[in-house]
Structures are given as C-alpha cells and as structure tokens.
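Sequence design from tokenized structure. All designs in this work follow the same two-part layout: the structure record, then the generated sequence. An example of the structure record is given first.
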C-alpha cells in the first residue's frame, strides 16, 4: 500500500475501558465514479475483563471514500438496517453506527475514536 495514502493502514480504538477494536483500510486498485475504494476489515471485543472471556465480532466490507468518509449499510433479518459511518480527521478517525445491537455479537460495537496503530 502506498505510504502517501493517508487513509490506508490499521487504526486502534482509544478510550474504551473493557472493549478493544481495530480496523484496517486497504486501498483497492479501482474506483467507482471517480471515488477511491477501500476494503475495510476489523475485529472488536466486548467484555475483555469477563471471567469467561470477551465476545468477539468481525467487520468486512468494501466502500468508496467520499469527502473523507466511508459509509456502509446492510439489512439484517428481523432488525432495522445497520449503518456504519467512518469519518477521517487527520490522523484520527471516528466510527458511528446505527442499529448496531446484535450486528457483530452480544454488546460488540465498533463505535468510537481511533488512532493510527
């Protein structure tokens, strides 16, 4: 991945007490309507201090970068659509989700602020 790409690479969530998460952005060689595309992958944990271990969830999708944002939404059976919005702000990023409960596993979410790893 090119070093000049400010969006590419791994980011780690900061500030969560019992949760951890990391998200990685890999630029793809093509674009859609002139917007660069990225493969987004991630792993999040909830309850890392629990006696029987944490709950684990994964994230994987491809999205276009538009105005420093990546957005993705999917339908879940029996639930409202889940939406994830990722905003890049310099060396940090912020992830906001709607209808995240149960999307990745019990209490697992990617919400929060992240810094480059």
């Amino acid at each position: 991945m090119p070093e000049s790409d400010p969006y590419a690479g791994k980011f780690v969530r900061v500030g969560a007490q019992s949760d951890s998460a990391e998200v990685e952005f890999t630029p793809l060689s093509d674009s859609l309507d002139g917007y660069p595309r990225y493969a987004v992958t991630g792993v999040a944990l909830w309850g890392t201090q629990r006696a029987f271990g944490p709950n684990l969830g994964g994230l994987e999708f491809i999205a276009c970068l538009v105005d420093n944002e990546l957005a993705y939404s999917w339908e879940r059976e029996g639930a409202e659509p889940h939406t994830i919005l990722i905003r890049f702000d310099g060396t940090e990023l912020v992830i906001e989700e709607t209808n995240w409960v149960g999307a990745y596993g019990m209490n697992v979410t990617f919400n929060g602020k992240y810094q480059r790893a």
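The mean pLDDT is 90. We note this feature because it recurs in several other targets discussed in the main text.
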